[in-house]
Amino acid sequence: MTDFTEYLHCWSLIVDGTPIETEAAALLLPVIWRDTPAMLKISTSQEEMRGYDLLEWWEGNGAARVFARSGAALLMERASAARSLAQLSRSGHDKQACAILCDTVAQLHQAHPAPPPTLVLLDDWFAALHSTQDVKLLAARNAMQELLAQPRDISCLHGDIHHLNILDFGKRGWLAIDPKGLIGERTFDYANLFCNPDLEIAANPDIFLSRVSFVAGYAKLDSQRLLKWILAWSGLSAAWHFEDGSSPEIALQIAGMAAAALGD
After folding, report:
1. Set 160, 178, 198, 206: catalytic member
2. Residue 160: active-site member
């Protein structure tokens, strides 16, 4: 508890669970703050700190509320309801899960004044795909270059929308957590949901095409442009997997289906 002690005292928090360490080098601790379930998060990662900035800027509109912040620590609203978008999708209600994801993204993309200055441009976010020479990713790189050359509908972006980053907050509804803090074309924020919640669902060709049609119509997106963003994002994800030695299987399969749907 050493990492949390200062903030437990400062914000008068009651421990309400066991600590969690994330892959993004963050420490989480479920707590109670003023009789309210909350999550204490500590990280010095620049990516996580950008996420802090964006969560504060959203002010609880489509995302978890920030209760307090100090340096590397963030105290935020905690999801305590039991429903899961991953479970919803796996139980045969994938379109309902996609609708919830789209509704949440639409809330996050609503116009607000003066976005945080720390947001990262999509051009910079795609650095790993810019530099790749892997022949498996050339179609994705080409799609990325085309999209970034002529961006549309610029918005502050969550950057990591998927079934485990949109949680059930009970009366407050489905809200986002863990944003990456990006800025660029809004369609980008819909691409990652196509790689989730798992290989069995995401790589099913019929589900993939049904999702493209549904999401494009529901979120009022150009379906061809959506496919290009799915291809570009999947290529970036695969490039990251190649860099860290993890499996790129889902990303490559989604990229392949997007390229096929585009006729590439």
Report:
1. 160
2. yes
